Amino acid sequence: DGGITQSPKYLFRKEGQNVTLSCEQNLNHDAMYWYRQDPGQGLRLIYYSQIVNDFQKGDIAEGYSVSREKKESFPLTVTSAQKNPTAFYLCASSSLGTSISGANVLTFGAGSRLTVL
Amino acid sequence: ILNVEQSPQSLHVQEGDSTNFTCSFPSSNFYALHWYRWETAKSPEALFVMTLNGDEKKKGRISATLNTKEGYSYLYIKGSQPEDSATYLCAPSYGGSQGNLIFGKGTKLSVKP
Q1: Quick check: B49 contacting A, CB < 8 Å?
Q2: Beta-carbon neighbour count of residue B49 at 10 Å?
């Protein structure tokens, strides 16, 4: 079955450590996204990529880094520079096209919950 | 920063009740409006994408309407069932087909049997 796999599901990190969240998709989607969810807030965009070897900052990119070396993979690194990293992280992907019908509809992974101790 | 408002924040209904909730968004440079359903412990799933003023979409007992001139969308659920319990997210996009989605905080629906 096609879909998006995020790992790990739960992650604990000590302050000052970097941690990498994995996101893999087998949907042949061009675009991939990372969102962050905090209690009482909407999903906020961290980074996105529309093509291999290229990515753009979203609304809250500070303290995060990404790479897109393969179409299927878009890992997110939460660095020690991120002031408040405890959150739920969602990865998503979408196809790109000029037709609105089906274009840019997001398919989401199951999420990763990061807790900083 | 664009502000997307969803109301109510949460809703508790009995099985069989019909319900509706609202998504309000800035109408300037609007391109499309997405609705997603997010059940607990699962991934958010797309319900509808709408672009045209007056658009109406239906999927089983769930339907949605769109008013792009005044910047709002309604989601209706007819005869709610316990399996409809979820958080419903709306997300407009702006500036063309490549515009990123701006998510509201969601409406959490609980349907009691």
Answers
A1: yes
A2: 21
Burial pattern A45-74, b for ≥16 Cβ within 10 A else e, equals: bbbbbeeeeebeebebbeebbbebeebbeb
Q: Does B40 touch chain A (CB under 8 A)?
A: no
> How many separate helices (H) and strands (E) can be counted in chain B?
0, 10
CA dist., res. A99 & res. B88, Å (int): 25
Q: Report CB contact under 8 Å: A108, B44.
A: yes
| A50 with B45: Cβ contact below 8 A | no
**Amino acid identity at B66:** L
Confidence class for position B98, pLDDT limits 50, 70, 90: confident
The pLDDT tens digits for A29-78 are 999 999 999 998 999 999 999 999 999 999 999 999 999 999 999 999 99
How far is residue A86's CA from residue B86's CA, in Å, rounded to a whole number? 23
pLDDT (tens digit per residue) in A84-108: 999 999 999 998 765 555 558 999 9
B55 near B65, Cβ under 8 Å?
A: yes
Q: Which residues of A23-35 are buried (b: 16+ CB within 10 A; e: fewer)?
A: bbbeeebebbbbb
A91 touches B at CB < 8 Å: no
Range B80-98 average pLDDT? 92
